[in-house]
C-alpha cells in the first residue's frame, strides 16, 4: 500500500457560529488547510458530516463544499457514521490516495448544531443509536451513556467523583487551545456541583455540542519526502471497526469491542505497542467513554480506566496524556467535525506547534473517533516523519 | 492501480415495502449478493443512502447493516451525494479494494421512501438541491427539473411529445424486469394524457419513488482470474465529478458538465470511445435528464437528445439502448439505492442473465448515477471479462 502523509491542517474555533452557514465553516477550515499545505487545489474532497440533512435541510455536501472553495468539478462526497463521521473523511481520503485513484485529497469534518432548537438537535443526535431498539423508547444519547456509566459504577465499585479527573484534565488543557469552546479550568468542586443531566452524568461529564469544521490535506508520502516547510506527518495506522448499534445487544455493554479491534489493527499497522504512544486524543463525549476507550485500547485494565485518571497518568506529564487540546469536553463536540479536530490537534502536537498545550517530545500520537455508543470506531496513529 | 471485479450481485424488487424495515431491505440485497458471489463474509461494507436520518430516524447505517447481515465488527460506513449515493458505495468499495486496505467489499444502496408522508419525503428529497438558493424558495425537485425542461424546449424547439420515447422505452423494458416497480407498457397516448405535475413535467416524465436495495461484492480481479461459476465482471472505468448544486449558478443550465467530465474520464480509463458502449443505464429521473445525459456523454449533439430517442436509437435494437431493465422510470427510483440497481442491471446484461431484457452480445456497459440536478455524477464502465 502507498504510504500516505498529512501535509496541511486547518480548523475554525468551535463556537455558536450563528453568523456562518455550514458551507462557510467547512470552507474556512479547507482554506486554512490548503494554505498550510501550500496548495491551491486537490483532486478530491471528502466531507465527514452527520446531521446536515436533518438540521440544515442540506444533503449533498461534497459538491457544495467543493464548489464553495473554488474547486467545482472535483470528486467529492459525504461520509457518515454518526459522531465517527469526521475520522471517516480522513479514512476515505487515505483510501483514495493509497489506491492511486487521486494524488491529493482533502478530508473535512463539519457540523452545525446550534441554529436549531435543543429538541431538534437532540432528536437528530439520537439517530446515531438504534431507532428500533433505543430511539423508539425516547432515550437520548446522554441517557444511553448514563445507563452504561451507572452499570459500570455498580460493576467496578466506582463513585461519581472518580470520573472527575477526565473532566478536569480536559478543561485544564482547553485553556491552552484558542479554538476550544471552553477555555477555563474547572475544579473538583465545580465537577461535583454541576447540574445533573441524566443521573449519573452531570454537565461536567458531558461534552458540549457546537458548530465547527476541521480539515486536512493528504498526499502520497513519497511525493513530499524531504519537503521544505511544514513537517510531514505520516499516517502510520488507520483502522475502522464496528459493533451493534444497540448497547443491549453486546456481549458486554461495558467493553468497547470495536475500539479494541480498531486500536489493535492500528498498532499492528504502525508496528508499535500501546506504550509507545506519546499522547492519545480520546473520544471523551462522556467521561465514561474516556474510561472505556482507555481500557479497550490497552492503557488500563478492564474496569480500571478511572484509576489511571485518578493516578494522574492521563495528565500532560503522565504516561498517556489524553485530550491534550481540551478533548470533546472543552474543545467541544460538533459531531461530524470532531474526528477531524482530533486529527488536526494530533498533527499540531507532532509538529511541535501545540503552543502551551505541547507534549514534550511527542513523536507518535493516536486519535480515536467513536460513532454512537461504540458502534463505529476509527483509530488513527500518526507519526512525525 | 489494482484492477477490481464484481463477483456477486443482489437486489430486492422496488416496491412499497411496508412490511420490511430499511435494514431488512439492505440485508436481503446483501444476502443475495453474497450467495451469488459464493462468499459468506467480506472485509468491509459501504452503504449508499441519502435520507434514512430524515425519514427513518436512523443514521449510522454502516454498522447497523453489517451487524444485521452477521458481519458485526467489519469496517463500514455510509456514503452520500443525494440520488448519486448508490454508485458512490461501489466507488468507495473500489477504492478500498484497489488500495489493498481490504480484499473484499460489499457495496449496498438502500432507501425507504414510502413509509413517510409525501410531504416529508418531498422535503427530504429537496435537501439534494441548494438549501440557500433553491430549497429556501420551496422549489421541489420536480419543480427544478421542470424549469430546466421548459428552458430546453424553448432553446432547442422541442415539443413535450418529443420526450415520449424515453418513457415508452423505459416502460417497455420494465415489462422484462421482475424487480421493476411498474411492469406494464405505456403508449404515446398514455404519455400525452398523464397528469401534469410541474409543467411541462407530467407523471410519465417523472420516475416514481420506492423502497429498495441493491448490492454488489467486489474483489481484486487477479484473485478471481479463471474463476469457475458466475462470470467475473471488471470495473473498467469509474469516475466522479461535481458541479454547482444550484442550477442558476452554472454557465449553461442545459449542459451537464459533471456528466461530461465523469464520462470522459471513465472512457479514458476503459480505453474506449462512446461508440463502443453496448448499452447505457442512464439516470432517467426525468425525461429531460435522459436527454441531457445522452448529450453530455457524447451520444447525441447538444440539444439533440430527443432526436436520438425519436429515431429509435435508445431502444433495444438501437445504437445505444438505454434503461434496458426499465430505468428509474419503470424500475423505480429509491434514491440512495438507484446507483446500485444500475450496477446490478449492468452486470446482469454483461453476464447474459438479463432474460427477456437481454441486449444481444453485450460486452461493455455504462451506468451513470446523478445526484441532485447534475451536481454529482458517477460514471462506471463495466466489461465482461
Please render the helix and strand layout as text.
Two copies of one chain form a homodimer.
Chain A: E1 4-11, H1 22-37, E2 44-48, H2 52-56, H3 61-68, E3 75-80, H4 85-98, E4 105-111, H5 118-125, H6 141-156, H7 164-174, H8 188-193, E5 196-198, E6 201-202, E7 212-220, E8 233-242, H9 257-270, E9 279-281, H10 287-296, H11 305-310, H12 327-331, H13 335-351, E10 364-371, E11 376-384
Parallel strand pairs in A: 2-3, 2-4, 9-10
Antiparallel strand pairs in A: 1-7, 1-8, 4-7, 5-6, 8-11, 10-11
What do you see in this structure?
The structure is a homodimer of 385-residue chains. Chain A has 13 helices and 11 strands. Chain A is an alpha/beta fold. Chain A folds into 2 domains: 129 residues, Thiolase/Chalcone synthase (Peroxisomal Thiolase, Chain A, domain 1, 3-Layer(aba) Sandwich), CATH 3.40.47.10; 236 residues, Thiolase/Chalcone synthase (Peroxisomal Thiolase, Chain A, domain 1). The radius of gyration of chain A is 19 Å and the shape is globular. At the A-B interface, helix 2, helix 3, strand 3, helix 4 and strand 8 of A face helix 2, helix 3, strand 3, helix 4 and strand 8 of B. Strand 3 of chain A pairs antiparallel with strand 3 of chain B.
